[in-house]
Amino acid sequence: MAPQGSSTHESVQEYYGTVLTNSKGLKTSACSGSKPPAPILACLKLVPEEVSERFFGCGAPLPLGIDGLRVLDLGSGSGRDAFVCAQLVGEHGSVTGVDMTKELLQIAQQNAQPYCEKLNYGKSNMEFIEGHIEYLDRAGIADDSVDIVISNCVVNLSPDKERVLKEAYRVLADGGEFFFSDLYCTRRLPEHVKENKLLWGEGIATALYIEDFKRLARSVGFTVPRALNAERVTITDAELAREVAHQAGDVTFCSITYRLFKLPGLLESLGEDYGQVATYKGTIEGHEHLYQLDEDHKFITGKPTLVSGNTAAMVGEGGTSWLSNHFEVTGNRVTHYGLHRDRLTGR
Fold this sequence. Notes:
This protein is α/β, with parallel strands linked by helices. 28% of the residues lie in helices and 22% in strands.
């Protein structure tokens, strides 16, 4: 039968803690992902080999321009993304990883201090905590205590995705963001697919239908889910591919990086036009010439761009968003001009 509740956690712990010894053991292309930007690649070169070998994520959900910010990594595993973020936030920022798999946590914990010494930090800016991502309160993560939440192909494995999203929203400070990659599918999977334990471990059986994920995100307060990029995931193991085709039928799986902003009172269900203009300053390393907010919004450095109220809020209207130092937003919401041209995308 399908793993449920605590048995789900136990199955995932066993699969990622003892069955898999490195990412080469995975049976899909989810971990290959797109090539990270140059600053991320430079950071990855400094990550301890032991940490990188036990990386099982998809994509590169690591925002740039986060110097001095507080980052929380959900399902941090051996800590690869957390170690990269430790460089990106600098000595005065902080990174906390939460994971339930002791074998992976131990790798992260034993490498953290030597790594920070290598970066010439006065003290470690990393902490790794044993816990479940559905219960960040039990792990001691306070309300409004972090600026960025990241996660890499982990939310999908949770038996209670709604609670994970609620907890991410709770711990984020206003203006913060849940920036993460995960596995999704193009239609709802039949219930019997969840009876296959291997499909659970690979994240296939638990993949959310994309539109259901958006509905769930909106319901917990992330009013406007924005996709940054998406890549089709192929099942590289022939036997598993046949099993999925037999069990699930015609379905496509995708690795998608989503951006979910916590901006209470500033986001609307559709993108409305108030005549606001946003100009990117070019101040984020790796994005000196342009900044890609999401798949539909690209900002060229120094070029004023007419934006919807939602986009204005995300990039810095009123100084709330963590991105506000990197953008200049002019105009207000006194006069409404109707739906913004983004209406076709529902934003």
